[in-house]
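Protein: Putative 4-hydroxy-4-methyl-2-oxoglutarate aldolase
Species: Streptomyces gancidicus BKS 13-15
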Amino acid sequence: MHHLGVVHRTVDRADPAAVEALSRFGVATVHEAMGRLGLMRPYIRPVYEGARLCGTAVTVLLQPGDNWMLHVAAEQVREGDVVVAGCTTESEDGFFGELLATSLRARGARGLVIDGGCRDVDDLRRMDFPVFSRAVSAKGTVKATLGSVNVPVVVANALVNPGDVIVADADGVVVVPAARAPEVAEASARREAAEEGKRERFRAGELGLDMYGMRGPLAELGLTYVD
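Structure follows.
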């Protein structure tokens, strides 16, 4: 149950060392390492090529067509945070642009993830301020209705609690619960190491069929080769 019009000032952020460790891994690796959990829906996309981010969530619940709470959230941002905004109902208006990005950057924000629209894309690219959004839209918003800041929000089907780790790159956005951040960082490192071993074998021309022992199970299911 959401209480509208609430700003929580105290956030239990994930351990900084774990956030730093997670920042070295791609979204696909983190998602797999976490047991295939935490992925936002794939309609959330970077607004410019090469955008990527990793940081702790300051969450925002927006009202459709209203960006007031993003200004309220800016005050709660600390160095290394990512603003993560959901909406009470679907809205693709341009909630965020270059001016708000300038404000968030001054507060130490690493970027924005928003289940809504974003504008001023060329400016954001020039600033290299990473934004991941559901739409790009020039349509402006008003400042009239209360939402909330630093409450649990559902953003593109993923639950985000304030202080969770957000990792985003060209493959999507994944949410790592703050308490799991150290363990998921370690699992990601193990996964990367294992993949490097496989990569070497693939480079040498070995087939997945042999590497993963697939031939037996395929034969059991009746796969036949015809010349």
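Remarks: The first strand starts at residue 45 and ends at 46.
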